[in-house]
Amino acid sequence: SASLRLGCQHAVFLLTAYFSLQVIYARRKYSVPPPATTGPPDFERVFRAQANCSEYFPLFVITLWIAGLFSSQALSVFLGLLYLCGRYQYFHGYSKSAQGRLAPLYFSAKVQWVLIGVGGLGVLCCMSRLYLGLDLLSSLLLVLGFSQLD
User: Fold this and answer.
1) Which residue range is the domain that position 100 belongs to?
2) 24 assigned to some structural domain
3) Looking at residue 70, which CATH number applies to its domain?
């Protein structure tokens, strides 16, 4: 339901706030006053991890909504939670070492691409039904040998 997507968006908000607080703590710990964005490597990794996550969250929220509106809401929320878990791991991995960001980065990127695909397929099916009178999903299921979903 829409409340599930909203819950996922609240998780994005909370995670963004958490990452921002980690930058504040790192500024204090490494004596890097605002507006400086450079300092010891340990500070710069925390700062970049937060910035990278913030840069990708708008794309994530948009694809989450598109997938939820035009496809399966449960699947979009599941993928959304996987993405957020990946981003959390990314942040902490990057904070420790530059190499520590790679596995979670690849994981969350794959989840994001699946979310984009689910949303894109949903939009395509909706538009073909609306403008062409063709139910692509039913046609695909028929071709695959599934005559009905009961």
Assistant:
1) 2-143
2) yes
3) 1.20.120.550
CA end-to-end span of the chain: 21
Query: ω before 34 within 30° of 0 (cis)?
Result: no
Residue 148 lies in a domain: no
Query: Considering the entire predicted model, what is its pTM?
Result: 0.88
Closest CA to 64 of 26, 20, 9: 9
Active site positions, annotated:
28, 101
* pLDDT tens digits, one per residue of 31-56: 999 999 999 999 999 999 999 999 99
